[in-house]
Design a protein that fits this description.
The protein is α+β, with helices and mostly antiparallel strands. Helices cover 37% and strands 25% of the residues. This is Condensation domain-containing protein.
Length: 439
């Protein structure tokens, strides 16, 4: 047994802490992944696999302790027995039950940090929710692949004890940002320049402050539509992410409210996976390692999609040339030296200003490609999969995008009646229309 499995408390990283602060004021900090199978899973095997991951990643069995210097505290009781919840449903009930479950808040501060629910009908659907305090979307994807690998090994009758010994004997990896800074050549974070605020005028998705009921709305771009999106972005020398962002700019603009005086320049916050700087693009542990950038473009309502795409590509190229996300990562590291109460007070005052103005910059979270090939749990193939981002409190607004088997899923987590379901549906429909009309 490695040292990490003997201790009962663990340090909170600057990124864990930042996601806690953001969650207290702006979102239900949970990330979800949905896996739809070609058949049914063996629930006993699945429970064993989930139990193995709790041993591999003790952070999942912890709660976030909100002290001035916060820390992770491991549960002393056993949580393995309740690790998997099975809900029986008919095929016709499945979609409604799944949608309600995805929007239901988990105990993302008090833990456990992971929740697994199997929806059983003719074909199973597995939903994993993880607290953003301990992991980002990239971490959840790695966790999902670990589940699939362990399940398949048990399915093939490999002894549990041998798998457990191998799993716990592996190097623990890291959760902090130190190796990231070393890989990026940053030796002194105190002298690293932080990003200057831009000149773009503030705009926001329309909302009130009546944050009562959590909700999630999704839309899917099928393979043919996805091929069209890839085609148009490729023809313009851009990426699919550029295409998503261009469509988001254009679709938000149709409903946005603006802070006066307006400027022609508008910005959207986007997430950056900082694993790009690591030699193997992985930390070897479950963690947060993401940051933010804010591409800004000059918007003209008469622009074509291609014109917006060109502006987005140009803005993203500039960001890519200047070590994306590192300024944000350094800022989180510096803020970690503040007592938690001071950081909460600072965030609270900023959020109060946003609430008074009922405005916050729209965000795009590209959750990325779930897998480049089919995922299998034993002989059960994952035929559909998508991810969901945190559920925001207005005026904060975010859209997530994930891809599996050339199928793109857009998702928005929000609270009603603060944000109208009709307005969110219109936004997503407008985005799909941008893809299909211009492809």
């Amino acid at each position: 047994m490695t040292e990490q499995h003997k201790v009962h408390s663990y340090p909170v990283t600057p990124q864990d802490r930042m996601n806690y602060l953001l969650g207290v004021y702006s979102a239900v900090q949970q990330i979800g992944i949905v896996l739809k199978f070609s058949g049914q899973l063996d629930t006993d095997l699945l429970k064993q696999v989930l139990q193995l991951t709790l041993k591999k990643y003790p952070i999942l069995s912890c709660r976030f302790v909100e002290d001035e210097i916060p820390y992770w505290d491991r549960f002393t009781g056993r949580i393995e027995e309740s690790i998997l919840n099975v809900k029986f449903c008919t095929t016709s009930e499945e979609a409604t039950m799944l949608k309600a479950h995805l929007a239901e808040p988990m105990e993302w501060i008090s833990g456990p940090m992971v929740q697994a629910t199997l929806f059983r009908s003719v074909c199973d659907v597995l939903c994993i929710k993880i607290s953003h305090l301990c992991s980002d979307a990239a971490g959840l994807k790695e966790y999902t692949h670990l589940l699939a690998s362990l399940y398949t090994r048990l399915y093939k009758k490999e002894p549990y004890e041998r798998i457990e010994k191998e799993l716990l004997g592996e190097e623990a990896g890291f959760r902090d940002q130190g190796p990231l800074f070393a890989a990026a050549g940053i030796t002194d974070i105190s002298s690293f320049p932080l990003q200057e605020p831009g000149t773009a005028s503030l705009w926001s998705f329309p909302s009130t402050l009546d944050n009562h009921a959590p909700a999630i709305t999704t839309r899917t771009l099928d393979r043919e539509q996805m091929i069209g999106l890839i085609s148009i972005t490729k023809a313009n020398g851009a990426t699919v992410n550029d295409g998503l962002l261009a469509s988001y700019f254009r679709s938000i603009a149709k409903q946005a409210i603006y802070m006066e005086p307006r400027t022609i320049e508008k910005a959207i916050g986007i997430t950056v996976d900082l694993r790009r700087y690591l030699p193997n693009r992985t930390t070897g542990n479950l963690c947060n390692l993401s940051a933010m950038e804010m591409p800004a473009i000059e918007m003209d309502e008469n622009d074509s999609f291609e014109a917006t795409l060109y502006k987005v590509k140009r803005a993203m190229d500039i960001i890519k040339e200047n070590k994306p996300g590192l300024s944000s990562a350094v800022g989180m590291e510096r803020m970690a030296s503040m007592p938690l109460s001071s950081a909460k007070a600072m965030f609270g005052s900023q959020v109060e200003l946003a609430k008074q103005a009922q405005m916050a910059l729209p965000l795009l979270t590209n959750l990325g490609i779930i897998s480049k090939s089919s995922i299998y749990f034993g002989d059960a193939e994952v035929v559909e999969s998508y991810m969901t981002a945190p559920i925001m409190y207005s005026p904060f607004f975010s859209m997530g995008a994930s891809t599996y088997q050339n199928t793109l899923t857009l998702s928005v987590g929000y609270h009603t009646p603060a944000v109208s379901e009709q307005a969110v549906s219109r936004l997503l429909d407008d985005m799909i229309s941008e893809f299909t009309t211009n492809a």
